[in-house]
Amino acid sequence: MPWRKFLGIFLTDPRVIQKIADSWPVRKAARNAVYLFLRGKDQFKDAIDKKQLPTNTELRTSLLRIKDTVSKEVKQGFKELSKGKKDPKTRR
């Protein structure tokens, strides 16, 4: 519990927060996040301008395929889980 209080006091100090914000890893992470955001934004705008967005039928088939894959994986996981419970050697 003393660590929680120490961190609470430590991380509310404006000087500490400023030093963390000015550190190289945090600046690099922020720069990469902004780069990825702007790149995605530009690609989305280009797709809208070129009208290369997927149609409703393409979206529907993609979503159905994802749904089927997820449901198969979940069913397979439940089968493996139920087999594991029946076999006393695999119990921990």
UniProtKB/TrEMBL annotation:
InterPro entries: NCBP2-AS2. It comes from the Eukaryota. PANTHER family: PROTEIN NCBP2AS2. This is Uncharacterized protein. It comes from Dreissena polymorpha (Zebra mussel).
